[in-house]
């Protein structure tokens, strides 16, 4: 198993916008979405919007076509492929939904880079419309975290990942939103957190950085995400016994950072 586990948020981290908003806006349902938004939790709202899309004749193919056009910084895919090629275990923890994420990753031809996706489950029902469920059933089994939305506590997911890995594994966590603050608090001294600069998680961390045990390394765009994440992977690799560092790993980083 890889010694380095890289955990990505999805919206505004891998893709450069919110995938929920993207689908709603591109299919012309922003007005209804904005009217309903104050009346229910986000996850419940997105399931409601999928019902509205279906009732107005929008198909799964329409949703897929829009998802395949979602904006992404040109350096994100090379960053993901490079980390995967270096033997890192890549995972996604996202408050989007599995259908949106899987569809986008498969279109970008990087689904195989990720060993696991933790997100709100979604499926196409017998009527042919997309249904979106909460990751945590907050009516039956509330997670009890005051920092996170009722449908998903990312901190709880990170703790389960940590328990499955053991003490020797190192985590790098990348995110942008307020929901990424709770998992950042759960990271250990040996880990790294990469908050997107001037986004909610960065602002929360900046209020009291001493609450974060992990090393903090900010990023602003896809180019910086690539540079910082690969530098951290190199830092972890170089700290291990030399016999465990492959010549390919060394060569890659010599080429990547020779101009820095």
UniProtKB/TrEMBL annotation:
Cofactor: Mg(2+)
InterPro entries linked: HAD-like_sf, HAD_hydro_PyrdxlP_Pase-like, HAD_sf, Pase_PHOSPHO-typ
Species in which this protein is naturally found: Vigna angularis var. angularis
Underlying gene: Vigan.07G030900
GO molecular function: metal ion binding; phosphatase activity
Binding site for substrate: 20, 95
Entry keywords, A to Z: Hydrolase, Magnesium, Metal-binding
Residue positions binding Mg(2+): 9, 11, 176
Name of this chain's protein: Phosphatase
Coiled coil, from the record: none
Signal sequence, start to end: none
Highest taxon listed in the record's lineage: Eukaryota
Active site: 9 (nucleophile), 11 (proton donor)
PANTHER family: LP01149P, PHOSPHATASE, ORPHAN 1, 2
